[in-house]
Design brief:
Helix 5 links the parallel strand 5 and strand 6. This protein has one domain: Rossmann fold. The protein has ten helices and seven strands. Strands 3-2-4-1-5-6-7 form a seven-stranded parallel β-sheet, sandwiched between helices. By secondary structure, it is α/β, with parallel strands linked by helices. Helix content is 46%, strand content 18%. The longest helix is centred in the middle third of the chain and has 17 residues.
């Protein structure tokens, strides 16, 4: 299964979601390739820390660009899952990722879900679906405090964009930043935390979604 974390704007939590999904899949015994398609390189920095931990399993991490649709199909055969962290405002790179993705996930936060950004992302994904009708698309509520009204409004924006939201959420929690700094996923950094429960629920949902042929 190839999962692409997409979105036209930075700060929505794509890297947090990508690294935690990859780390949890590895924790479950999957062979995972994590692709950093953002020139900032945050995912590769996390990956270097993850692989530096003696004896700890970690995903393989490579850089991605606008040739992923050519390179990844053959590389993916060696893995159980591929997770792509796309850059914001890099249309050519995101198009390349969508050309090989089975599931496109759009992290949405109250600060990042501007109308133009979400509309552009949806438009690009719809174009990809015309070529690949089996591509599944879901929005992920990310980096929000659901105790605040502005957090709850995210679902209204997602619905207005014509998207389906995942049931799982990654709320605004300190454990995500702490785990990122340590080069770990939150399910190993703080396995008893609410953040870890959120990631486990997200991966469960994505695995079920990846097993569907339509929807």
């Amino acid at each position: 299964m190839v999962i692409a974390l997409c979105g036209q704007k930075g700060g929505s939590g794509k890297t947090t979601a990508a690294t935690n999904i990859a780390a949890e899949l590895v924790r479950r015994g999957r062979r995972v390739l994590l692709v950093d398609a953002d020139t900032q390189g945050s995912t590769r920095t996390w990956g270097a820390k993850a692989r530096a931990r003696d004896g700890a399993p970690a995903p393989d991490v490579i850089a991605g660009d606008d040739t992923m649709h050519k390179r990844l199909p053959s590389a993916a055969r060696e893995y159980d899952a591929v997770v792509i962290d796309c850059a914001g405002r890099a249309d050519h790179v995101q198009r390349s990722a969508l050309a090989v993705a089975d599931v496109a996930v759009i992290p949405c936060s109250s600060g990042a879900v501007d109308g133009w950004a979400l509309a552009e992302t949806v438009e690009q994904i719809q174009a990809a679906q015309q070529l690949r009708p089996a591509l599944r698309v879901r929005a992920l509520v990310s980096r929000v405090d659901m105790r605040r009204a502005v957090g709850r409004q995210v679902y209204e924006l997602i619905k207005a964009a014509g998207l389906t939201a995942l049931r799982a959420e990654l709320q605004d929690r300190a454990e995500y930043e702490e785990a990122q700094y340590a080069g770990q996923g939150v399910t190993t950094w703080a396995p008893s935390s609410t953040a870890a429960e959120e990631v486990r629920a997200l991966v469960d949902e994505l695995l079920k979604l990846g097993g569907k042929r339509n929807g």
